[in-house]
Amino acid sequence: MKYKEIEKINYIKQIAEKIKFPRILELGVQKGNSTKMLLELCDKNDGYLISVDIDDCSHVASNKRWKFIHSSDDNFNLINNKINEKLDLIFIDSYHEPNHIKKIFYNYYKYLKIEGICIIDDISWIPYSKFNICDNDFIERINRLTFEKILNIYNSNTENFTLNFHFVGSGLAIIKKLKDDLFEEKKIINRLYTIKNLIKKIYSRKPVK
């Protein structure tokens, strides 16, 4: 199980269990830990779950409240036609590449209810940074890029959804839909590497006499 996976699943459960008659879309199944948790909530709150994975994960559960789609989650011609009503929750935990996440978020956002929740997994690079508990150069880089991608999308959509982050394990982005509008991302221009700030950084390192 991934680093602090149980804690993350419990956090998602706290969000999802408040939803009555939930309609849920899960992108990414793998071993089915989140799938089983979401199905428990569907049984409890009279909900329904659609799960999508490029691998055949149909063996993970057997439940009348569950539909498994064996497909890549960007096969929109197939999957869009399987969504027959607005969604209360979308959980994205599939191919963790920033542009892919953006593509599927922009597609499925329109199926999310107003005040519906979209949760995106693997947005924290902290555990994977150098000398940290899960030291991994690739995951550190890709999670950081995903985090920045989500911030850039939010930068042009601050009136359209709220955004929070939860940094347990590999982290979660929690998005709450406010409006149906969704604008193209707008890159955040920061001043960290301006000449002015680089000069300040150099002079701040000089010893005080």
Description:
This protein has 209 residues and is an alpha/beta fold. It has one domain (5-204): Rossmann fold (3-Layer(aba) Sandwich). Helix content is 33%, strand content 21%. The protein has helices at 5-16, 33-45, 76-79, 98-108, 137-155, 195-204, and strands at residues 23-27, 48-53, 66-70, 87-92, 112-121, 161-166, 172-177. It has a 7-stranded mixed sheet, with helices on both faces. α4 (98-108) runs parallel beside α5. The longest helix has 19 residues, at 137-155. The mean pLDDT is 94.
Helix coverage percent of residues? 25-40%
Shape: globular
| CATH architect. name | 3-Layer(aba) Sandwich
Radius of gyration (CA) equals: 19 Å
Alpha-carbon distance between the two ends: 53 Å
CATH topology: Rossmann fold
Largest sheet: 7 strands, mixed
Q: Give the number of helices.
A: 6
Number of strands: 7
Adjacency order of strands in the biggest sheet: 3-2-1-4-5-7-6
Uncertain ranges? none
CATH class (first level) name: Alpha Beta
In CATH, the homologous superfamily goes by the name: Vaccinia Virus protein VP39
Average pLDDT level: 94
Q: What series of H and E elements makes up the topology?
A: HEHEEHEHEHEEH
Q: How many distinct folded domains?
A: 1
Structural class: alpha/beta
The fraction of residues in strands falls at: 15-25%
